[in-house]
Amino acid sequence: MPYKYKTPIFNLPYMGKEDILSEQEERRRAIIIENQLLAANKGIKNCIFEEGEYRVLDKGKTRDVCLLTTGENISFMGIVNSAFCKTCKTIIWNNLIPNRIYYLYLKAKDNIYENCSSVLSIAKESTPYYDEHNATLLAKIKIGYDSYDLDINPDGKIYGQDILVHSSDTTNPHGENLVQDNLLIRKSLNFEQNGIDGLSKEIVNLYDENGNGILQKEKFITLNELSNGTEGREIICDSKIKSIIVYENVVENKPTFGLGEIAIKIFDNRAYIYNNGKCNIPILITIVKES
Predict the structure, then answer these.
(1) pTM for the full model?
(2) Of 148, 167, 131, which is closest to residue 58 (Cα–Cα)?
(3) Which residues of 69-197 form beta strands (DSSP E)?
(4) Could you name the CATH architecture of 47-168?
């Protein structure tokens, strides 16, 4: 017989006074819970929330790939075969043979719903893996005899995040690589450089609304210099300078905040950088110039 009571939203049945334990009602409750859990993650059975650091170990005739904890982080947290998985143990794909390509998965053990760290590491030479719906893809590795190429963002790898974390996370919220057919930038598009002397980066594959290429002839260059106060610091390039960004390059533990206000004067391929603060403060100069 049906239980007397049920929850107000999902109608989960529960026992009341004089109710008798019912196999049918217990099954009904379990199915409702399972359906709502699937709805909560939009049917995603496999994805990654967090992962540790990958290492490849040379064992002579074979290689091992290890997924390690990093600092306070865990080695893996995500969904495997619709079950929440979290483990701080080192995950190892071992005895990988050179001159082959492997796809590295985690597969759920039968007791994963009771033990969230109960997973198996599986390496397969083909993709899609025959049981990929019950396994989570983490990486791809091409092993040579003297080298290897480890891809930790292979096609088919799915990342997932708590929606509150996602809304506040500005660093790779969709993983390290993003493929987007159309992208509208409303205000600005910034390219961050690494602050290495002489580093330049070609800007390619940028298009306008008509599909015409733009900015292909522009380059970013970053330079390390010292501020020269109101006397100014002269910068000379081999082509016309379009814009310059300047900020303090923190080389010690703390910034000095001593640059004061910054003024920039550009003449064709020359620029002068002034500041009304201190001299000899390390500055990082990012230049956009024509090729």
Answers:
(1) 0.51
(2) 148
(3) 76-80, 83-87, 91-96, 100-108, 119-124, 135-143, 148-151
(4) Trefoil (2.80)
CB 161 within 8 A of CB 175: no
As a whole number of Å, the end-to-end CA separation of the chain is: 80
CB 278 within 8 A of CB 259: yes
Q: What is the identity of the amino acid at 242? A: K
Half-sphere exposure of residue 199, counting CA atoms within 13 Å on the CB side?
A: 13
In whole angstroms, give the CA distance from residue 129 to residue 109: 17
Q: CA-CA distances (angstroms) from residue 251 to 196, 226, 246, 279, 291?
A: 12, 12, 15, 15, 30
**Do 288 and 223 contact (CB within 8 A), yes or no?**
no
The answer to whether 278 touches 256, Cβ cutoff 8 Å, is yes
DSSP state of 166: H
Q: With contact defined as beta carbons under 8 Å apart, do 233 and 227 qualify?
A: yes
Residue with tokens 């974390």: 165
Domain locations in the chain? 5-40, 47-168, 199-290
Each residue of 22-48: pLDDT tens digit? 999 898 888 888 777 766 666 678 888
Is-contact 106 137, C-beta < 8 A? Answer: no
Tens-digit pLDDT profile for residues 212-252:
555 445 577 888 899 999 999 999 988 888 889 898 988 77
Run of H or E including 186: none
